[in-house]
Design a protein that fits this description.
The chain is built from 10 helices and 4 strands. By secondary structure, the protein is mostly helical. It starts with a strand and ends with a helix.
């Protein structure tokens, strides 16, 4: 399985397995089935349950088409909306344990998902052959939308799992100090721990200090340095995250 090295904004280089063409196709099929099910249900409700078919009587072809577009509108925006809300995943991608990420290490945003969505019109043309060929010939199994948005789709179900470096041993009677850590993601915590571990190895107090300040800024915390050192603070944050997310060994 091919891999991609992503250099995060914190200058941490991490390798991920690229989602295979088969995984992406299965995710696409799952999402397609969901969209088909929605369409069947919405038309059944419209014509059978609420018996609103009479509203279309006497309308011209364009007006009828407009009504159909309105009824099925969620199907068209399904990918861009759900990828934005689910941080690079749709139900299909989530079931297949794959995710859209930015190659430059930054968090993919709505604009990136929108670009992928727009290019979907090209990628799905000719029965999806265009996108399929693009994934086969591109280095990172990217379809045209991925290339245009600077994204790739990675697999999360392997030994390079996105959360594999955040595990921390905590005792059963451990009492957390900062519930605010739930605002962090697995990716945030992995980057924090990677940077912290590297800084400890070389004794870089500056990085530890900057990392501590960054965490406090994100979580909006004010810590009295007389009561808790920067190292103690970062250690507690890592343990608290493991406690709240259940990622303990």
């Amino acid at each position: 399985m091919s891999q991609i090295a992503i250099n995060t904004s914190q200058n941490v280089n991490i390798k991920f397995n690229i989602a295979s063409v088969g995984e992406r196709m299965l995710a696409f099929i799952i999402d397609l089935l969901i969209k088909v099910a929605y369409t069947v249900i919405i038309f059944y409700l419209f014509f059978n349950i609420f018996d609103l078919g009479y509203l279309l009587a006497g309308l011209d072809q364009w007006s009828v088409m407009a009504v159909y577009i309105v009824l099925t509108f969620p199907v068209y925006i399904y990918p861009v909306v759900l990828e934005s809300l689910m941080e690079g995943q749709t139900p299909g991608k989530k079931l297949m344990k794959i995710r859209v990420v930015k190659i430059d290490g930054y968090q993919a945003g709505f604009g990136d998902y929108l670009i992928r969505w727009v290019f979907r019109l090209i990628d799905t043309s000719a029965a999806g052959v265009v996108g399929l060929i693009s994934m086969i010939v591109s280095k990172n199994n990217q379809r045209l939308g991925d290339i245009a948005s600077g994204t790739a789709v990675i697999s999360l179900k392997n030994n390079i799992n996105i959360s594999h470096t955040i595990l921390e041993n905590i005792h059963e009677d451990y009492v957390p100090s900062f519930p605010q850590v739930i605002a962090l993601s697995d990716n945030d915590m992995r980057i924090i721990k990677d940077n912290y571990t590297k800084a400890l190895k070389v004794g870089d107090r500056q990085i530890i200090s900057r990392l501590s300040d960054k965490i406090k800024s994100i979580l909006k915390l004010e810590i009295d340095p007389r009561k808790m050192t920067e190292r103690q603070f970062i250690n507690v944050v890592i343990k608290d995250y493991n406690y709240y997310t259940g990622k303990d060994n």
